[in-house]
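Section 5.1 Outputs to date
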Amino acid sequence: MPQEKWDRYSASWSQPEADRNAVLAELATLDVAYTDPTTALEGPGAFSAYMGEFQQQFPGTQFQIIDVREHHEQSLANWKLVDGAGEVVMLGTSHARLTPEGKFRSFTGFF
């Protein structure tokens, strides 16, 4: 289940706005927070807008989850960003805090 949730979340980074908004509504809380070395934001609207900006900066790329570890409402995913030819553009790790029901509460990306 954790792998599937991360796979759906990571795919949303390459999806059109309406699709990624639907994924965030299903998988994340209304006050979801996101932080990485370049930004810190809160709320699904701001998060989706950031994903859209990311798509413009890295067109044709997609995230692939390598592995996931999860315990005590904490989750850690190692990932790679690949281009259309399957070449690795970037490697990273993301940490998420979860609600007791398993929704994403916050993300911190490291790359």
